[in-house]
Amino acid sequence: MPSSSFLALLGFIGAASAQNYWFSFGDSYTQTGFVTNDTLPTSGNPLGNPVYPGYTATGGANWLDFDTTTYNNSLVLTYNYAYGGATIDSSLVAPFEPTVLSVTDQVNQFLDTAASKPAETPWTSENSLFSIWIGVNDLGNSYYLSDNRTSFDTTLLNAEFALVQKLVSSPLLRPLKRNNVGARNFLFLNVPPTDRSPLMLSQDAQAQAMLKANILDFNAQLIEFTNDFKASNAGVTTFLWDANAAFTTILDDPTAYGFIDAVSYGTDTGYFWM
């Protein structure tokens, strides 16, 4: 169930106009399998391709599906560039397969297609939201590789926010709007407590503690980067949803939310981990 603050955010994107646009980037927590050269979102099919709910990590509707079709105050057309297994930049943290599209690749896809506001996607700065939920694979694939995690987390977030800046204005956009892509409304989601996942619970206590500390550091820096980004870009609005806190609340009392427990996993709706 979305939190009241998240519903307020969705009310925000519904306030601009009768038709709003959502451009999302991320990993398997967000993916639906959207590709840019197939059916685009329309009023009768707000996520475009593939057929709803798409190819999600859980096999059913995910948060982006629900928020596009149910938990909003207007028609939201969602262009979901998220790709399962993604990291921020493959040159910094390699994904599980070289074919995985990083957030760097996803943003470039957007810049090559919808960024120029073509006739079939006439979004504006006022009626669009840009979201990024990333970091799970960046940390999960690297938390044990470096002693100086704070420095590496800074490197990761520098790379992420360089991409975010391109969504505001990018020299890559051709040909007429080269200096102003136009993104102004941004939603960032932090890294959930994957140190409590069944995969990590099968590791030793030291590994779990290392990942937890890495997540806490990354999330703390994400707040700082978000604030600095907003301060450096006039007219930008930012939202940061605390996915870590939401997951923690449920994992601390799973049966109260209809789950079997906090440690099992499976394909049934009774499992928190899928």
Give a summary of the structure in a few sentences:
The chain is α/β, with parallel strands linked by helices and about 270 residues long. Helices cover about 35% and strands about 10% of the residues.
What class would the helix/strand composition place it in? alpha/beta
According to DSSP, the number of beta strands is: 5
CATH C-level class is: Alpha Beta
Main sheet record = 5 strands, parallel
Q: Walk across the major sheet and give the strand order.
A: 2-1-3-4-5
In CATH terms, what is the fold-level topology? Rossmann fold
**Which regions contain 5 or more consecutive residues with pLDDT less than 50?**
none
The CATH level-2 architecture is identified as 3-Layer(aba) Sandwich
Provide mean pLDDT, rounded. Answer: 92
Distance between the termini: 17 Å
Order of helices and strands: HEHEHEHHEHHEH
What is the number of independent domains?
1
Helix share, percent: 25-40%
Task: Evaluate the radius of gyration.
Answer: 18 Å
Protein name: Carbohydrate esterase family 16 protein
Keywords: Hydrolase, Signal
Signal peptide: 1-18
InterPro entries: GDSL, GDSL_Est/Lipase, SGNH_hydro_sf
Give an account of the 3D structure.
This protein has 274 residues and is of the alpha/beta class. It is built from eight helices and five strands. It has helices at 4-13, 63-69, 103-112, 136-140, 149-168, 198-201, 205-232, 243-252, and strands at 19-26, 75-80, 128-133, 185-189, 237-241. The protein has a five-stranded parallel sheet with strand order 2-1-3-4-5, with helices on both faces.
